[in-house]
Amino acid sequence: MIARLFCYLIAVAMISVAPAASAEDGYDLWLRYAPANDARAGEITRHATAIATTGHNATLTAATQELQRGLLGMTHTTPALTRAVAQGALWLATPATDATLPVALDGLGDEGYAIRSTQADGKAVTLIAANSDVGLLHGAFHWLRLAQSGAPLDRLDIRSAPKIKLRLLNHWDNLDGMVERGYAGQSIWDWWRLPDYKGPRYTDYARANASIGINGTVLNNVNAKATSLTAPYIAKAAALADVFRPYGIKVYLSVKWTAPMELDGLKTADPLDPQVAAWWKAKADEIYRAIPDFGGFLVKANSEGQPGPQDYDRTHADGANMLAAAVKPHGGIVMWRAFVYAHDNPDDRAKQAYDDFKSLDGTFADNVIVQVKNGAIDFQPREPFHPLFGAMPKTPLMMEFQITKEYLGQSTHLTYLGPLFEETLDADTYARGKGSTVAEVIDGTLDGHKLTGIAGVANIGVDRDWSGSIFNQADWYAFGRLAWNPDLSAEGIAREWAAMTFTPDPKLVKPVVAMMMGSREAAVDYMTPLGLAHVMGTGHHYGPAPWISDLARPEWNPVYYHKADATGIGFDRTKSGSNAIAQYAPPVAKMLADPKTTPEKELLWFHHLPWDYRLKSGETLWDGLVHHYDRGVAYVADMQKTWENLRPLVDPERFAQTEAFLKIQHREAKWWRDASIAYFQSIAKRPLPTGSDAPAHDLDWYKAQDFPYAPGNP
Ligand code: GCV
Predict the structure, then answer these.
(1) Closest by alpha carbon to 396, among 160, 161, 164?
(2) Ligand 1 near 555 CB (within 6 A)
(3) Phi then psi dihedrals of residue 118, to 5 deg
(4) Of 3, 184, 378, 427, which sees the most CB atoms within 10 A?
(5) What is the pLDDT of residues 574-610, one digit of tens each?
(6) Residue 253: exposed, middle, or buried by beta-carbon count in 10 A (0-12, 13-18, 19+)?
(7) What angle in degrees, to the nearest 10, is found between the helix axes of 418-426 and 506-527?
(8) What does the alpha-carbon distance between residue 9 and residue 576 come to, in Å, rounded to a whole number?
């Protein structure tokens, strides 16, 4: 009896300490398929009584399995797979499986889809139709998004096709597992155990990407090693390509310019040398034998110490075209990065990419696309759009965004990037008159390009939550959604993400979205307000260091970017300074020539202004600067309050992570503010505006901070 009681007590104790069945660690991303309440589960079930399809292949299997997985999670029932449509079925069909479909598929291309509530054989069904199986997979994910986020499931009439052709992640993953600018642990590519072991994470990676329409991934760092082009590494890349293929995702590789010399002892890497061209052609043939649908090459050349064609007095176009010829017979492409600036060029760093590339317009082969960062410096919390957008009408340009937050708080700051992406895409280049947005440059409509693309530097690593924090997942999600359709709103995307990641309950979605939407501006406020840029610590780029002035190259020093002195602050990029504004179309250049017509959020990017310059608010520049820092810190304190109020609506594990990270963010926002004010005040020599607190420490204390092991630093 006593023994039985003892066993009973142990059992009770085990139940009470066992983790809750619903404990979440973020691994499932936005594909959680959490149980719906009874009414909603009933509604979902009524619209998915069965999954009807007559096709058979790996992509269709991925689509039907995803639907079954989602429905099981949300409704606790798994609909049967049938060949004939039943009342209430989800019917997946292409013209190949069903000759006559009650929906037109023109304009949907080979990745788009239609979802329509319709009749088939006298039965009410939800038809997901597409020209291809990958289109069906995208349609299935769209339907699951509706089901997860509480949207209506009847009277559907949706048509969706991607506006941009290449929607890629760029992994800055090294072969040793380190991720450059990665804040979510080591690389997810287990190069060592590939190609034999293909862990389940690769499939989950493909599912997540396909769910937001990403269709390509560059596996290795743009600071590439030649080794990634050796036979063993091609086999490893091929193994990943096999996993991703059913999900409509192609693999690409970054290449090192001097690979022919390093791997096979060629004497030169001159792009006009026939032996070099032959080497690349043979290498491309070898890759395509292993990966028949290989996407192509990404190249960082003559940039930050990487070798390139300019080492042989050749142009970027000479280099790109030689590689393009190698992949052309296989349908491959070359993405040539325009992120270039040279140590021996004394001109404004912000001007150098334009100066190098503008004159090459029209000289690139038709399977080359030039990859341009969103701004002319380097993924700052805010940058004006890159002047190359709109300036090379005869060349397809693709966008490069950074999803990983090298300069925006790295893994712990909640700084939703949707508004940053949106701001750049919506920017008006005026290149062909008013309304020539950056989005139209990259979706090809402005200048009639068919080869179009957008890349995001991935924030993915082996952390259980993939991205270093739950909220960083939203940046990956937003990138994919905007890549599919750059006209979507960052706010709408945040709503979808919050509903799927947490709960569709408006009591959570509303405050979470509000908090996310202002979070990037808050980071701008506490880090680089009013157009300041690149004042982060050297190398690791973590935390403030606007005082650094002793590094070998001028543009490595934060003082180069803010130019604060006794007279004022800011980089004069008007005629009296570097005249970088002349790289923009005349109406934009005219607006930027005068501080009064320059958007205040970009003021100090373009102008060096006296500390007592009057801002639109009427306050002096100095007071305004301090108020921006204050506002940034206050916003983070508000996010902490908002999050605390959401405690009852979020599972403990994910709640605790965000709670802890917001605490870090608040401490670091204050550090940013205090260090920046301490430094700039030592130059401006003005009192703080009334109500603004003095920094917690003196300037020397901030200067003494040291971070030898900050992550992501190559
Ligand atoms: C991959 C910045 C980053 C580098 C990165 C480079 C690039 O300078 O700090 O880590 O290198 O951009 O985009 O090539």
Answers:
(1) 164
(2) no
(3) -150, -170
(4) 184
(5) 999 999 999 999 999 999 999 999 999 999 999 999 9
(6) buried
(7) 70
(8) 82
- Token pair recorded at residue 377: 């410096």
pLDDT for the residue numbered 221: 98
Cβ-proximal residues to 55 (8 Å cutoff; 6+ apart), any chain? 92, 93, 94, 96, 97, 133
Nearest C-alpha to atom 11 of ligand 1 is from which residue? 223
**Torsion sign over Cα 522, 524, 526, 531:** negative
The active-site residue out of 133, 406, 555, 630 is: 406
Is residue 314 within 6 Å of ligand 1 at its C-beta?
no
Selecting among 24, 173, 378, 630, the annotated active-site residue is 378
Domains and CATH numbers, the chain: 27-160 (3.30.379.10), 166-367+402-409+445-469+478-501 (3.20.20.80), 525-571+608-703 (3.90.1330.10)
- Residue 605 tokens read as 């990017």
CA atoms within 13 A on the CB side of 361: 14
Query: Which helix (H) or strand (E) segment is 675 a member of?
Result: helix 652-684
Rounded to a whole number, what is the distance in angstroms from the first to the last CA of the chain? 65
Point out which residues pair with 127 in neighbouring strands: 91, 116
Indicate if ligand 1 lies below 6 Å from the C-beta of 181.
Answer: yes
Quick one: how far is CA 392 from the chain centroid? 24
CA of 371 to the centre of ligand 1 (A): 14
CA angle 48, 49, 54 (to 5 degrees): 85
Q: Which of 56, 55, 157 is nearest to 104 (CA)?
A: 157
CA distance 519 to 417: 9
- Kindly state the tokens that stand for 63: 């689509």
Top mutation candidate among 173, 179, 181, 303 for ligand 1, by most atoms within 8 Å of CB: 181
Single out the residue of 135, 62, 125, 141 nearest to residue 94, CA to CA.
135
Q: How far apart are CA 169 and CA 162, in angstroms?
A: 16
User: Ligand 1 atom closest to Cα of 221?
Assistant: 1
Active site residue 651: no
Nearest atom of ligand 1 to the alpha carbon of 222: 1
Closest by CA position to 229, among listed 258, 188, 200: 258
CB 499 within 8 Å of CB 148: yes
pLDDT at 99: 83
Query: Mutual orientation of helices 652-684 and 621-645 as an angle, nearest 10°?
Result: 170
CB 477 within 8 A of CB 492: no
Residue range 492-511, pLDDT digits in tens: 999 999 999 999 999 999 99
Rounded Cα distance between 623 and 689, Å, is: 6
Q: CB–CB of 357/370 below 8 Å?
A: yes
Question: Is residue 406 flagged as an active site residue?
Answer: yes
Report which ligand 1 atom has the smallest distance to the Cα of 306. Answer: 14
Block mean pLDDT (10 aa), the chain, length 714: 39 36 84 97 98 95 98 97 96 93 96 97 96 98 98 98 98 98 98 98 98 98 98 98 98 98 98 98 98 98 96 98 98 98 90 97 98 98 98 98 98 98 98 98 98 98 98 98 98 98 98 98 98 96 97 93 98 98 98 98 98 98 98 98 98 98 98 98 98 98 96 94
